[in-house]
Amino acid sequence: MGAISARIRVTDYVSVTQIYLRNNFTLSRPLEPSDIKPRLLGHWGTCHGINVFYTNIKTWNPEAHCMIGPGHGFPALQAQLWLDGKLEQYYPEATVTESGLAYISKQFSWPYGFPSHSSPETPEVILEGGELGYCVGVAYGAALNRPGSTIAVLIGDGEMETASLLASLNLNKFIVNGRGNGRVLPVLHLNDYKISAPTIYGRISEHELHSLIRGFGYTPIDIDGDDAEAFQMALRASERYNYPFIIMRTPKGETGPAYVDGKKIAGNYLSHQVPLGHAATDENELRQLETWLRSYNINWQEVFHA
Questions:
Q1: N- to C-terminal Cα distance for the chain?
Q2: Is 0.85 surpassed by the pTM of this model?
Q3: DSSP classification of residue 150
């Protein structure tokens, strides 16, 4: 399971560089204010959860299609596509090299570059995400008349509050897994917070959440934390059920800064977008950003020559 954890660390790191950096992408020297983008845009809080989901799904079934409801966490998806070499197929400069890392980081959320959300310009994307509530409906549509396919769909817990998402959970009444169609595997990312408040499903009891999911005809399977072995066991268990529904619990903004200026960041809504918003002008925040990046302990020689 070490390869899964290593990949998650790399994609978390690359998620951060896209939001913050315009130079010094592998930290070959200490960060300087001039390394920071003049305008910081993006959504960090959901990125670790996306990387955990995507890496584990692709390890379990490389042919599975990953659909991401919280598409505003695009740095994570782009990091995955970059590391797989899929981005390079459409953007030749996006090589899995230091120059390719510089390219995707500089171009993220930048005029005429890559947008801050998933978009039709992104390889394999058929759902923008970010406009929350449509991912499960699109996932079932993608599974129609595609026997043998697996559509794993990540649902944000704030997204789960929308009427469109809840209504689309009824689609299992009309599309039977395995009978001329593909399989849909919903994965709820329960990180407890949305943009500025707790989520409903992060505050109700496990019994109530399970009852809701069972009421829609699904079998809930819990994963508490980002342990790769636990995730792989849950995925293997999902193969036994017609309508499995995985609940993945990881804190919002996990692997990011715990506190900034005395305010709780990781495990709180304050991690939703840019937790170190003054890194270019505040020396303390700049050093926190460098500590954050170095905490991933990336061996770039292995990454660039994998």
A1: 17
A2: yes
A3: E
